[in-house]
Specification:
Blueprint (H helix, E strand, L loop, with lengths): L16 H4 L4 H29 L1
Length: 54
């Protein structure tokens, strides 16, 4: 059964990179990419759960 996503909301929080991210450029890029992917997956799962409840 195909899944259709009708709404996708992406939220971001801006933080001071010097406080929270490692100093190595590669680590920052992979951490940022992982955080974005994780946030997207959580949002998609939330939307699917909401659709299932209807």
């Amino acid at each position: 059964m195909p899944v259709e996503i009708r709404e996708l909301i992406i939220r971001a929080v801006a933080e001071d990179p010097a406080l929270s991210l490692p100093s190595d450029q590669e680590d920052r890029e992979s951490l940022s990419e992982e955080a974005i992917i994780s946030a997207c997956v959580k949002e998609v799962m939330r939307i699917l759960k909401k659709e299932k409840e209807r």
